[in-house]
Amino acid sequence: MPADDPGIPDARSPIRYLYWVARRQAGALTVGIAYAIVWWIALALVPIAVGAGIDAIRAKDTSALLTCGAVVLGLGVVQVVAGTMRHRMAVFNWLSAAYRTVQVTVRQATRLGATLPRRVSTGEVVSVGNSDIAHIGNAIDILLRATGSIFAIVTVTVVLIRTSVPLGLTVLVGVPIMTVAVAPLLRPLHRRQHAHRDLQGELSTRAADIVAGLRVLRGVGGEQVFADRYAAESQQVRHAGVRVASVQSMLEGAQILLPGLLIAGVTWLGATFAIRDEMTPGDLVAFYGAAVFLIAPMRTLTEAADKLAKGHVAAGRVVRILNLEPEVTGGTGHSGAAHPGGLLRDVASGVAIRPGIFTAVAAATPEESIAIADRLGRYTGGDVDFGDVPLDTLPLAEVRRRILVADNGAALFAGSLRQELDTTGTASEEDLAAALHAACAEDIIDALPDGLDSEVAEAGREFSGGQQQRLRLVRALTADPEVLILVEPTSAVDAHSEARIADRLTKARSGRTTLVCTTSPLVLDRADHVIYVEEGVVQAQGTHRELLATAPAYAATVTREEG
Is the model's pTM score more than 0.90? Predict the structure, then answer.
């Protein structure tokens, strides 16, 4: 996609989105259509030139025969050149439309952030990249041949009318009738394609859930239940596909039957005129060749209707994502200069993170601490103050840069482990080494064949749960944000590793604003300040040992004992 493309189009309907895509590559489309027109017209004129050559042979006119031969040769050369360039531009336009859709979808996904998984299923997003981009590319690609085919039909019709008015009128009337005859098939095709695409998205979501939770399913013996459920849903997709294919087969049949009837009619009329000497043998051959040729552009028009219908359905899926708005947006305050920061306070709960202090929040339920972290990181709406200004008045990009929330839902992406841990590419070897040491992750790197340069598989599946958690902690520490909020950073590691991480983490973040949401006594004991939250509100504050002695509810929560 060109660098000057807008990030996300204002496309409120599938038609507007397809128009936007076509407009963004109008130059390439225009060139491709021009080549398609030349190619189609060259094909259309060949039967006419051949017919003229036959009449030249009948009249024993050598000069006219050589001229017709040269014309046929020239048309062949034009076909080769124009056809090659038309196909090249068709591929270019297909790729441009398809990957322009990928880019705007990815940009919208980045813009939506945490809103996207709440509003759209994983399978829906995956299906956009798997199938919808192909249909959108096909819808743009077919514009070249469809436009050229219209010019070819007009050219043949004009030539036929000039040679024989009855035959020319037969073609002129027959082509629109056949085009209209297939229109009733398009609406049920569109409806069934829409239903099929919905089921495909749901099935993709099911597959993603099964793959992500396969280890858990095997542990509880539930893999067969979900396998049966997937099989049942896949059968629904198959049946929906068969319903789509039934209409498509009728459409394909119409593409053969209707042009065939027209050709038979034109050929019969032409033969009748030739028997009456109202037409020369060359004209008859030209008419027959032109009538046979018309099958191709007419099939192209029917194909265009099919691909545009599919493209409309696919564009509707893309527009559904593009029309989503982030649940949380940033403000414009202090956009010209950096805000000095200060105390980060969640008004609803009363949780306050003092600058430069290692703070811990222990909540009666994990959901409470997660909700507080999301509000403090501006992932959900809430009344939060950052220093002397509301957090929602700051630009969202500045909030993301200065406040980092790292939880156990953060993904490990495929690629180099070094790039995975140093997402900005600015960390030095010493910074990475310090972060690895603080997260007790050196053993993970040592076990890899290429160390930090080793390739990480999708979702980091080659690592255990504890290893993934430590690598996520390394990534958060390497980012070195002004405010770091960690949600249960040691829940998947053993007690020995947890104790070491607790010691090293407090040293690594010494003098930096840090909040850890946890109920681990090992981490809480190292915190400078501990806040206990119950029913969404701060109930007690102090050090870990002070709260153990003075707050029974806190003691019960962190020691896992009854009240």
Answer: no
